Amino acid sequence: MAAIAAKAHDKLPECTGRVDSAVKLVLAGDVELRADGTARVASQSNGQTVYHVVNGTCDCKDFAKTPHHFCTHRLSSAIARRAQELVTATLDAAPPASKPVPAPIMPVAPLPEAPASANCYVTLAGRQVQVTLRDSDEQRLLVRLEALLQRFPAEAEPEGEQALPEGWCRKHGAQMKLNHGKDGSTWYSHKTADGWCKGK
What we know:
alpha+beta
């Protein structure tokens, strides 16, 4: 990913900021490459908005104003596609006996922690999966989290409640953070649109 980003910086010096934003979108899993050659890219400013990149064009407002029409969404789809091609080529070149199981693209170096993030477990197709939301704005993150929880409402548990992860808030269906007090006390809590919740 670092090599792809470096080449993009060299070829498009006037789009340095957009290249960096595009890389973050790819690493966050916000770019969906489709079999028909199109792509769906989540908005950085609004996680509920999705832009479509088709035949080198994007339906975002920034597309017409950017140099060479390289908006962040078009760049992110191109970077994701190039990364996918490199991974495929590497796997195909490996000896049959040593070919690893395909794995998701991982960053070469750790990126700074997102200013706001939230983890929650939802039931999808009968399976419990963990979803991580990241954003640069806490209030916007909470709006996205609320929309996610409304889309996947908590299912009623059968008699003899199922064991949930430690620090899990049954009320909001979210993972809480373990806090430590100066007096040695500990407690779990997480922030909601109405304030802090301790899962009670």
